Amino acid sequence: MPAIERSRLVQLPSKILGRQCILRPYRSGDGAAMWDAVNEDRTDLKTWLPWIDNHLSIEDSENYVRNMAGKWITRESITLGIFSLDEKTLYGGTGFHGFDWAVPSLTIGWFLRKSARGRGIGTEAVSLCCTLAFEQIKVNRVWGSVDATNEKSWKLFERVGFRREGHLRGDSRSHHGAVRDTFIYGMLARDWSAPQ
Ligand SMILES: CC(C)(COP(=O)(O)OP(=O)(O)OC[C@H]1O[C@@H](n2cnc3c(N)ncnc32)[C@H](O)[C@@H]1OP(=O)(O)O)[C@@H](O)C(=O)NCCC(=O)NCCS
User: Regarding the domain delimited by 15-191, which CATH topology (the fold level of the hierarchy) does it fall under?
Assistant: First the structure.
């Protein structure tokens, strides 16, 4: 897989259709849906995600989606909303926020609102992202890091087929102030086969 020389020219779809969800970039006006998703159980999301307190008003959420819509165009962030099939409900978000275009390698992340969990929507969304990364963008590697105590999240990595590549002991401090262990998960293009 060659290096990607001009990342802004990477072709991306305007929508990705799954069985249970649609992935698409955020656009102006999605702030209300984002605000709704974050507020459904803010305390739970805050356990794992430091950025939840950036959403303290609907305007904050609108600011976020417009920022992501801009970064989608410049390929500084490839962030996708996970929507219900009728696109009326935002189930969560996923996509790529770290890039090494020379490898090429992408870092992945995600969240789901509480009412969207336990149905495989996260697994489907992350699998669709891997298909995008390996089959369309044509990267060598997708990887992510996760708090070792975030079992729901590292199980999601494993359901999609990522390998645990590392266990970093006491490597970082969580946004709650405790020193934590981190698991690193990775998938290579040669490992990837999309679920049928
Ligand atoms: C991480 C997170 C997305 C996982 O959510 P999830 O609902 O467990 O994941 P999925 O949507 O893939 O659903 C899997 C669950 O649905 C079940 N399921 C039902 N139908 C399924 C299907 N068709 N395919 C896969 N799983 C299915 C699975 O058994 C699993 O349940 P289990 O954990 O009780 O075994 C969610 O917990 C979350 O948003 N956490 C907070 C944010 C966060 O931690 N982000 C990551 C920071 S690194």
Answer: Aminopeptidase (3.40.630)
